[in-house]
UniProtKB/TrEMBL annotation:
Pfam families: FAD_binding_4, MurB_C. NCBIfam families: murB (TIGR00179), PRK00046.1 (NF000755). One of its GO terms (molecular function) is UDP-N-acetylmuramate dehydrogenase activity. It is an enzyme of class 1 (oxidoreductase). It comes from the Bacteria. Its EC number is 1.3.1.98. The keyword tRNA-binding does not apply. GO terms for biological process: cell division; cell wall organization; peptidoglycan biosynthetic process; regulation of cell shape. Cell wall formation. It comes from Polynucleobacter meluiroseus. It catalyses: UDP-N-acetyl-alpha-D-muramate + NADP(+) = UDP-N-acetyl-3-O-(1-carboxyvinyl)-alpha-D-glucosamine + NADPH + H(+). This is UDP-N-acetylenolpyruvoylglucosamine reductase. The keyword Oxidoreductase applies. Belongs to the MurB family.
């Protein structure tokens, strides 16, 4: 546990703050009160004051994994703690400390510029560094949890700053301790351990294909560029069309269930998972049910990627939940599989 000094400026308050530009779905939402957090020291007095006035609160990073209501009651804490530095280097690893409000992709670019490869498969994931451990962001066979040394956070239950080790964070597929205790921890800083030994991780089909003609082993920057190119082709740009990336998690099912499905649907897409389980491609399940390109009023299923729900404008959280339910019901009826929604419903 760390103790922090007082004397930091109070968090800046904005009443009735528009959040349309701070959620990638582009939903028209307003926070009753918004507080900009630029230093960790602002958090204890702010939370104390909110507690005394019985005002609810939550943290918002870049808003790329949330579904916001039209009126977000209580206090919304806008995470803007910045700064990154190499803290320590030992024989095997480099330890990098980064503020929770830094942009994730900009940070990945910075690590590569510092000659610290490892995070390139996670390029172009939107959002902040502080939110990355919440759902243990992952892409192209790599998860952030593998690279985390520790997390500095404010524990609102203990009303104290804590440092959580990688093991304590309990990282799993799109899961962590933070998801089990929503709104308990405010991540202020992330310390990454980047191993000096590096090897290319291109076993995911899209990446393997990208480098199939290569005569030499790909460099970290070549993988970074390939990941950016693939993502730009596959995923809609939230600046152009509202979305939160993959809307459903890939479901984990028992092997027995998988074996009965593969008999009925030999072309089903699946991946290895934990012992006794198989991970199904949620996009394939949705596509097979004929939803790709479906439009339901102001929302729809992206025409190039069935896993992405898009918002065309003037829609609400309810429109998104309605289309999600339509998809969940049909997928359940067809495959006996429940699709879990990935974004956080605030
Ligand atoms: C086009 C697109 C592509 C995407 N691709 C991927 C992908 O490949 N892999 C992947 O894993 N995700 C992906 N995502 C989802 C999203 O980018 C990640 O989940 C990201 O980490 C969210 O960051 P954020 O800052 O926007 O978090 P927000 O959406 O602001 O918040 C997400 C949740 O984390 C909480 N939170 C945020 N910051 C903090 C903090 N400092 N302390 C405590 N709690 C906090 C919030 O309360 C909320 O519950 C994608 C999203 C989009 C729009």
């Amino acid at each position: 546990m760390n103790s922090k000094k007082n004397g930091s400026p109070p968090a800046k308050l904005t009443p009735n703050k528009a959040l349309k530009d701070r959620n990638t779905f582009g939903l028209d939402s307003r926070a009753e009160f918004a507080y900009e957090i630029t230093t960790a020291e602002q958090i204890p007095p702010l939370l104390q004051a909110l507690k005394e006035q019985a005002i609810s609160w939550r943290v918002l990073g870049g808003g790329s994994n949330v579904i916001l209501p039209t009126h977000l009651l209580g206090a919304t804490l806008l995470m803007n703690i910045t700064g990154q530095a190499i803290e320590n280097v030992d024989e095997k690893s480099t330890f990098v400390s980064v503020g929770a409000g830094e942009n994730w992709h900009t940070f990945v670019t910075w690590t590569l510029d510092q000659g610290l490869p490892g995070l390139e498969n996670l390029a172009l994931i939107p959002g902040t560094v502080g939110a990355a451990p919440i759902q243990n962001i992952g892409a192209y066979g790599v998860e952030i949890g593998e690279y985390i040394d520790s997390i500095e956070a404010f524990d609102s239950e203990a009303h104290a700053f804590v440092t959580l080790t990688r093991d304590e964070c309990q990282f799993a597929y799109r899961d962590s301790l933070f998801k089990q205790y929503p709104n308990r921890f405010i991540v202020t800083r992330v310390i990454l351990q980047i191993p000096k030994a590096w090897s290319a991780r291109i076993s995911y089909a899209d990446l393997t294909k990208q480098f199939s003609d290569a005569t030499a082993a790909p460099t970290p920057k070549a993988i970074f560029a390939a990941v950016c190119q693939i993502r730009n082709q596959k995923l809609p740009d939230p600046k152009v069309i509202g979305n939160a990336g993959s809307f459903f998690q890939n479901p984990l099912i028992d092997i027995a269930h998988y074996e009965s499905l593969i008999k009925q649907f030999p072309e089903i897409i699946s991946y290895p998972a934990t012992p006794g389980k198989r991970k199904l491609g949620a996009g394939w399940l949705i596509d097979h049910c004929g939803f790709k390109g479906l439009t339901l009023g102001p929302v729809g299923v992206y025409k190039h990627q069935a896993l992405v729900i898009v918002h065309y404008g003037n829609g609400t959280a309810q429109d998104i939940m309605n289309i999600a339910k339509t998809i969940q019901d049909k997928v359940h009826d067809t495959f006996g599989v429940h699709l879990t929604i990935e974004p956080n419903i605030l």
